[in-house]
C-alpha cells in the first residue's frame, strides 16, 4: 500500500469532450499548446489547437479540412516553422503552418488509400540529416518524402510483385545520428516488422511478431539505434535491443504480455528519459514502464521501466558471435483513465511528465505524471 | 492493533504527501506555462541547409524549402490568439488610436504616425483572425487609416499618404470625402515638390486622378472649401500642362441635350461614374431619354408596362450623395406579360428575362426571389413631381419635365447576370436623344464585389431600391438588422414625405426605437440638420405616432433628448424645433397617475391622440 503511493502518480488535469473523433494528438514544440487531429461526423477533417491556461485546455482554433485526418507529426519541420505534417483518409499528405492553416505549405497525394501512420525526422529535436516524412498506408506501401522535393518521394517501399499487400500500420524513424544514417522501421498488420536502412536503401532486417503491429518506436531518433519497443494486437509488446545484431537471430527481443488481453495501441518514450515509456491499451489504461533513478523494488504494480542488464552482450555459445541481451522491463505504474481504447498519446517535449492523450470516447485528457525524474 | 494504526497513519501520511506533491506539480505547471508563453524559445541549431534530398547529389535549390537562416532567428511565440486575446487586441488598438489622435492634436506628427501604425497593425490582426466581420471595427480601421494619411501629409510623406487614402477608398468607403481630398491633396503636394525638385513623376496620371477625386468630392459636398481650393489649384496645374486638357474634355464632352436641369453635375457624375470603375461602386448614369411612346414600341414587353421611375433623391440640402444611387427604374410587369424588369441601380441590377429567375447582383442578399415574388416586391416609383424640386446632384435624372410623367422611359439596361458573362452595354447608343453613356459596371467587377468582404456587401445593400410597402420595409429591415450601417442606409432611402404612406398602419415600437438610435448614431454626425428635422417631422406624422411616444422607453427618450438638443444647437431659436420636440415628448408624471388625464396633455399631443383614437 505504501509502495503504491510512492510510485509515479498520474494527475488528470483536464478532460475535454469533443464533437469529433480524435485520431491523433500532438504537442506543438516549445509551447503550451497541442493540436488534435480527427474526423467530424460528416466525414470532414478536424484540426483543433488548444492551449493550456491555468491548467485548463482552452480552444484556440478549430479548422475544418475536406478529408478526415488520421495522423500528424511535427518531426520534419524546424522549431522556427513548426509545420504540422498530416496524413488523411484519402491518402493526401499535407504540411500545414498552423498560423495560416487554410492552404497547406506542402501537399501531395501520397497514397491511394488512407495514410495510417506518419513520422517525421530531421526537424525539431533532431538536427541531423535531411528533413523527411514517412507515411505508411493501407495500400501496403511506405513512402518517404522530403518537403523540398515535390511530388516525388525519396523512397518507396512496397511489397514485391506477387506478394500480398499488407496494411502498413506504423512507421518509425531511428538511428539518425549523423547526416547520412537513418533507419526506418515499418510494422504491418500481419506482424511483419521490417527495418530499412535509408543510407543504403536496402532492407536491414525483418521479423514477424505473430500479431499485427500497432505501434513501433525507437527510444530515440537521434542516437545510434539502441532500443525499440513494438506493440501489437493481442496485448503484447516486445522490446528489441538494437545494439547488437546477430546474423542469424537478428535482434534480441523481450516479449511481455499484459494481463488484460486487449490491443496495445501506442507506445511513447518519455522525451526526457529514454528508458521510460508508456503503453496505452484497449481497456483505456496507461502502463508506465521504465527505470527510475532510485532503486525500486521488483514488486511495483505496473509502472514499467527497462533495466539494462549488467552485460549487454553475451556470447552465443554455439558460434561465438555476439548476441544482444535485452535486460528487463518493469512496470512502474498503471492507471485506467478511460473506458474506451486510448488511441493516441503524446508526451510534451518541454515539460517533464506533461502529456495529452485521446480515446475513442471522443475525449482528450491532459495529465501530469509525477515522480518521473 | 498498534501495527494497524501505524500502517493507517503511514497511509494517511502518504496520502497527504501525495496531495502536496500534486499541488506542487500544479504550481510547477502553471509556472512553466507562464514561462513558455512569454519566452521566445531558443532556436535550435538549424540543420545545414546544404543537406541534399536523399538520393540526389546536390542540395535542392527549389524555393520550396524555407531558407534556413545562418543566424539564429528569434522565434516569436505562437501568434494565434484566442477570442479573449483578440478582444484585448482590439482594446489596445483603440487605445493606440486615441494616443495617435492626442499626438496629432499636439502636432507631434512623428509619434502620431507611429501610434496609428501600431493601431492599424493590431486592427488588421484582429480582423484577419476574428471569425466574423464587424463593421464597427472596419470603421475604426478606416478612421485610423484616414488619420494616418493626414499625419503623413503633414510629415510630407506623400506617396504613403496616397496609399493610405487609396486603401480607404478601395476597401471601406469610396465616398469618403476626407479620403478623397487627402489623396488629391497629397498628389498635388507631391507634384509640386517634384516639380520643384525636377523629378519626373507620372504626373499626368496623378493630376488626372487628383482632379477626379476633387470633382467627386465636390459633388459629394459642394460647400467644401478645401476641395474647392484644391480643385482650383489642380486646374491651374492642368492648364499649364495642356495635354491633360483633352482627356478631361473628352470625358465631359457628351452632354445630354435635353431633359437635364444642369449639365455640369451630370457630366461630373458621368465622369465620376467612369472614374469609379476602379472602386467598387458602380454607377449607372441613365439620363432621361425622350419620348416614352417611341420606347414603348421598341421594348418587347411593350403594351402594359407601366413604368415608373423612382428617384430617391434627398432633399436639396442634403449633401449626401448616396441617395442618387437609390434611383431605380422599374418596369412593373403584368403577370402575364413578359417579365422584363429593368432596374437600374448602382450595383444591384435586377434583370428578369422571360424565363430566367431574377438574378440579384447583391450576392449577399437573401432575396433570391422568383420572378413572381419579385414583382410583388417591385418598388413603385414615385411621381416625378418630386423631381422638379430636386437638385441635379442625382446621377439618374428622371424626366424633369412635368410632361414626362410616369410613362417616361428608361433605357432598358439588359444585363445578363449569369455568373461570369459579359455585361452588355446595350441600347444606349441608339437612343439618340442625348443619352449619355451608361457606365455599366463590368461584370467581373461585380463578381469581384461579390466575393469581397461585408463592407462591399454593405455598399451593395445600400443600393437597393427604397421600400415602398411595409412588407418590403420589413424585409429589408430583417436583412440588415445586424448591421447599423445597413439600417442607416435603409432609413436614408426612405424619403421623409414617404413616411406617412409607408408606415400607414403605424410603426411598431422597436422600429421607432431603432430609428431613433440610427438618428443619434448616424444622422447627427453625418446628415444635415434640415434633413434630420424633416425626417423627424415626417416620422411624427406616422399613424398613431403619439402612441409610440407614450410608450417610449427611457433609452428612446434619451435618444430624443440628444437629437433635439443637437437640433436646437444647430438651428438656434427656431420655434418649429420646439414644436416638433413636443411631439416627441410626453410628460410622464401625469401619465403615471392613473388614467390619462387628457386635459393635461399638451395641445398638439392631445389632438394627435384624439385623432388616433377616433380612427
Automatic annotation (TrEMBL), chain A:
Presence of keyword Repeat: yes
One Pfam family matching this protein: WD40
InterPro entries: WD40/YVTN_repeat-like_dom_sf, WD40_repeat_CS, WD40_repeat_dom_sf, WD40_rpt
Entries under PROSITE patterns matching the protein: WD_REPEATS_1, WD_REPEATS_2
Ranges: WD repeats: 133-155
Highest rank taxon of the organism: Eukaryota
Assigned keywords, A-Z: Repeat, WD repeat
Protein name (record): WD repeat-containing protein 92
Organism: Physocladia obscura
Automatic annotation (TrEMBL), chain B:
Listed InterPro entries: RPAP3 (IPR051966), RPAP3-like_C (IPR025986), TPR-like_helical_dom_sf (IPR011990), TPR_rpt (IPR019734)
CC per GO annotation: protein folding chaperone complex
Low complexity composition-biased segments: 56-65
Biased composition (Polar residues): 38-47, 268-277
Domain RNA-polymerase II-associated protein 3-like C-terminal: 466-557
Pfam families: RPAP3_C
Region forming the signal peptide: none
Keywords per UniProt: Repeat, TPR repeat
Residue ranges, annotated region (Disordered): 33-67, 255-280
Family note: Belongs to the RPAP3 family.
Designated name of the protein: RNA polymerase II-associated protein 3
Gene: RPAP3
Amino acid at each position: 500500500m505504501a509502495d503504491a503511493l510512492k510510485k509515479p502518480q498520474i494527475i488528470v488535469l483536464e478532460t475535454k469532450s469533443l464533437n469529433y473523433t480524435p485520431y491523433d494528438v500532438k504537442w506543438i514544440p516549445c509551447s503550451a499548446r497541442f493540436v488534435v487531429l480527427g474526423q467530424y461526423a460528416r466525414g470532414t477533417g478536424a484540426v483543433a489547437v488548444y492551449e493550456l491556461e491555468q491548467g485548463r485546455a482552452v480552444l484556440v482554433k478549430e479548422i475544418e479540412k475536406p478529408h478526415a485526418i488520421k495522423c500528424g507529426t511535427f518531426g520534419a519541420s524546424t522549431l522556427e516553422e513548426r509545420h504540422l505534417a498530416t496524413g488523411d483518409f484519402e491518402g493526401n499528405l499535407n504540411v500545414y503552418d498552423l498560423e495560416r492553416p487554410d492552404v497547406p505549405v506542402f501537399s501531395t497525394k501520397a497514397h491511394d488509400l488512407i495514410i495510417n501512420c506518419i513520422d517525421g525526422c530531421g526537424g525539431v529535436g533532431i538536427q541531423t540529416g535531411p528533413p523527411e516524412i514517412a507515411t505508411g498506408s493501407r495500400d501496403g506501401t511506405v513512402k518517404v518524402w522530403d518537403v523540398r522535393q515535390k511530388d516525388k518521394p525519396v523512397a518507396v517501399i512496397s511489397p514485391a510483385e506477387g506478394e500480398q499487400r499488407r496494411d502498413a500500420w506504423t512507421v518509425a524513424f531511428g538511428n539518425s545520428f549523423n547526416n547520412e544514417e537513418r533507419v526506418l522501421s515499418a510494422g504491418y498488420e500481419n506482424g511483419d516488422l521490417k527495418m530499412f536502412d535509408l543510407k543504403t536503401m536496402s532492407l536491414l532486417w525483418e521479423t514477424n511478431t505473430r500479431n499485427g503491429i500497432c505501434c513501433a518506436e525507437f527510444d530515440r531518433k537521434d542516437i545510434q539505434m539502441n532500443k525499440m519497443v513494438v506493440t501489437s494486437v493481442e496485448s503484447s509488446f516486445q522490446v528489441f535491443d538494437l545494439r547488437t545484431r546477430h546474423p542469424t537471430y537478428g535482434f534480441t527481443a523481450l516479449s511481455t504480455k499484459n494481463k488484460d488481453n486487449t490491443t496495445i495501441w501506442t507506445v511513447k518514450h518519455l522525451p526526457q528519459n529514454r528508458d521510460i515509456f508508456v503503453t496505452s491499451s484497449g481497456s483505456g489504461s496507461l502502463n508506465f514502464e521504465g527505470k527510475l533513478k532510485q532503486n525500486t523494488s521488483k514488486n511495483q504494480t505496473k509502472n514499467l521501466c527497462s533495466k539494462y542488464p549488467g552485460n549487454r552482450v553475451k556470447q552465443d555459445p554455439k558460434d561465438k558471435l555476439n548476441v544482444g541481451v535485452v535486460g528487463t522491463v518493469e512496470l512502474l505504474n498503471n492507471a485506467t483513465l478511460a473506458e474506451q481504447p486510448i488511441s493516441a498519446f503524446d508526451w510534451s517535449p518541454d515539460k517533464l511528465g506533461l502529456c495529452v492523450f485521446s480515446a475513442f470516447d471522443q475525449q482528450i485528457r491532459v495529465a501530469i505524471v509525477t515522480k518521473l525524474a | 492493533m498498534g501495527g494497524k494504526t501505524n500502517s493507517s497513519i503511514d497511509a494517511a501520511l502518504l496520502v497527504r504527501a501525495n496531495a502536496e506533491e500534486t499541488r506542487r506539480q500544479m504550481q510547477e505547471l502553471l509556472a512553466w506555462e507562464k514561462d513558455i508563453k512569454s519566452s521566445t524559445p531558443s532556436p535550435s541549431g538549424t540543420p545545414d541547409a546544404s543537406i541534399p534530398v536523399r538520393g540526389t547529389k546536390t542540395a535542392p535549390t527549389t524555393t520550396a524549402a524555407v531558407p534556413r537562416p545562418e543566424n539564429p532567428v528569434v522565434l516569436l511565440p505562437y501568434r494565434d490568439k484566442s477570442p479573449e486575446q483578440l478582444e484585448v487586441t482590439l482594446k489596445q488598438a483603440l487605445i493606440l488610436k486615441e494616443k495617435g489622435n492626442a499626438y496629432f492634436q499636439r502636432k507631434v506628427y512623428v509619434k502620431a504616425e507611429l501610434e496609428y501604425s501600431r493601431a492599424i497593425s493590431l486592427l488588421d490582426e484582429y480582423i484577419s483572425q476574428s471569425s466574423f466581420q464587424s463593421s464597427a471595427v472596419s470603421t475604426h480601421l478606416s478612421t485610423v487609416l484616414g488619420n494616418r494619411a493626414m499625419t503623413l501629409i503633414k510629415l510630407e510623406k506623400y506617396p504613403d499618404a496616397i496609399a493610405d487614402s487609396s486603401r480607404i477608398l478601395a476597401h471601406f468607403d469610396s465616398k469618403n470625402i476626407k479620403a478623397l481630398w487627402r489623396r488629391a491633396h497629397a498628389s498635388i503636394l507631391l507634384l509640386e515638390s517634384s516639380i520643384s525638385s525636377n523629378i519626373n513623376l507620372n504626373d499626368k496620371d496623378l493630376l488626372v486622378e487628383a482632379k477626379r477625386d476633387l470633382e467627386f468630392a465636390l459633388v459629394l459636398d459642394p460647400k467644401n472649401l478645401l476641395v474647392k481650393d484644391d480643385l482650383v489649384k489642380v486646374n491651374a496645374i492642368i492648364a499649364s500642362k495642356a495635354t491633360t486638357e483633352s482627356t478631361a474634355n473628352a470625358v465631359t464632352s457628351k452632354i445630354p441635350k435635353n431633359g437635364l436641369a444642369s449639365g455640369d453635375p451630370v457630366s461630373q457624375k458621368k465622369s465620376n461614374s467612369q472614374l469609379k470603375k476602379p472602386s467598387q461602386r458602380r454607377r449607372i448614369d441613365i439620363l432621361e431619354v425622350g419620348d416614352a411612346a417611341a420606347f414603348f414600341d421598341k421594348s418587347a414587353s411593350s403594351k402594359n408596362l407601366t413604368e415608373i421611375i423612382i428617384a430617391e433623391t434627398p432633399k436639396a440640402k442634403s449633401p449626401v450623395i448616396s441617395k442618387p444611387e437609390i434611383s431605380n427604374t422599374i418596369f412593373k410587369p403584368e403577370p402575364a406579360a413578359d417579365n422584363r424588369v429593368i432596374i437600374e441601380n448602382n450595383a444591384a441590377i435586377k434583370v428578369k428575362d422571360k424565363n430566367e429567375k431574377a438574378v440579384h447582383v447583391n450576392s449577399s442578399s437573401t432575396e433570391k426571389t422568383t420572378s413572381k415574388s419579385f414583382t410583388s416586391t417591385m418598388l413603385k416609383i414615385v411621381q416625378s413631381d418630386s423631381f422638379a424640386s430636386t437638385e441635379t446632384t442625382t446621377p439618374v435624372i428622371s424626366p424633369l419635365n412635368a410632361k414626362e410623367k410616369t410613362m417616361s422611359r428608361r433605357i432598358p439596361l439588359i444585363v445578363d447576370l449569369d455568373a461570369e458573362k459579359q455585361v452588355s452595354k446595350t441600347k444606349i447608343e441608339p437612343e439618340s436623344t442625348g443619352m449619355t453613356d451608361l457606365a455599366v459596371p463590368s461584370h467581373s467587377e461585380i463578381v469581384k464585389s461579390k466575393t469581397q468582404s461585408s463592407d462591399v456587401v454593405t455598399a451593395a445593400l445600400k443600393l437597393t431600391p427604397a421600400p415602398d410597402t411595409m412588407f418590403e420595409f420589413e424585409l429589408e429591415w430583417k436583412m440588415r438588422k445586424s448591421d447599423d450601417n445597413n439600417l442607416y442606409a435603409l432609413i436614408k432611402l426612405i424619403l421623409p414625405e414617404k413616411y406617412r404612406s409607408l408606415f400607414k398602419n403605424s410603426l411598431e415600437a422597436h422600429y421607432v426605437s431603432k430609428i431613433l438610435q440610427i438618428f443619434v448614431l448616424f444622422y447627427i454626425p453625418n446628415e444635415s440638420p434640415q434633413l434630420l428635422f424633416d425626417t423627424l417631422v415626417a416620422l411624427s406624422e406616422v399613424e398613431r405616432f403619439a402612441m409610440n411616444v407614450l410608450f417610449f422607453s427611457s433609452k428612446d427618450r434619451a435618444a430624443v433628448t440628444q437629437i433635439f438638443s443637437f437640433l436646437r444647437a444647430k438651428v438656434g431659436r427656431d420655434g418649429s424645433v420646439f414644436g416638433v420636440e413636443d411631439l416627441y415628448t410626453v410628460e410622464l408624471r401625469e401619465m403615471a397617475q392613473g388614467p390619462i388625464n387628457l386635459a393635461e396633455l399638451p395641445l398638439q399631443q392631445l389632438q394627435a391622440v384624439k385623432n388616433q383614437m377616433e380612427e
